[in-house]
Amino acid sequence: MGFPPWSCDPLLHRGGEAEALPFGRTRGFKPRVRYNLIGISDPMGTLLSVVVPKNAGKAFMVKKGQRIRVTGRSVVDFVAFNLNDLTERFDQARTKTNQAKVYISTGDQLISKLNNPMLTIVEDSFKEGRHDLQKGMCSRKRFELVAKGLAKRVFAEGIDPNPKKPEEIPDHGCWENLQEVLEPWNIDPRDIPSPFNIFQTMRIDQDTGKMFDTFIRPSDEDHVDFRAEMDCLVALSACPESGRGQAVKVEVFEDRDGGVPEER
Ligand SMILES: [Zn+2]
User: How far is the CA of 57 from the centre of ligand 1 (A)?
Assistant: First the structure.
């Protein structure tokens, strides 16, 4: 079973044929890939398989029950919207509060502002560190504020990798990537929620509340699988990580085993 017509990505769908598909940013660098999307799935049930270059974004739709796999070695900023009501969005606070934890992994859910489960993490191979639910996302402005000392970004390892010279500062970040890929759905940039930051391990001092970035990332490729609990518009950005970011792979599958994962 492939993607039904309603779920065609307006960026990607032209006439229902497999074709050259633009993804990522359309300014600056713009790699293109070719894959089959409409009504076609391979024997593994793959509906979508795409590599998102470093500091680029991707938006796509999933139907309830389908599975999303994000594979990579660097940070991925991940957001979701209710496809049937795009004003209902992923919410960091609900996700933490409703599950009484600041880290989520297998068996946990991404919760919307309206307290509805959007996605369940059904598999998580990242064991070296944690995923983040505290931070927002990088952007040109954020890079500039850090470079000028007007915003903080401190690493637990005591190293300061933040770009300082204007020519070293990326001209865009996850904020701009997500804006661009969500534009076809008329998502106002101000309505993009703070993300679930996959593979972003933070250190939080439990007494002072001070928050530290770390260099802890998957030592080899790791993946996180999500099962859609509602029809979702999903968008993600392969974070530039001030130059250290890498491309990430995104796949969508028909869910074959279903059910609630046993591990929690
Ligand atoms: Zn970023």
Answer: 10
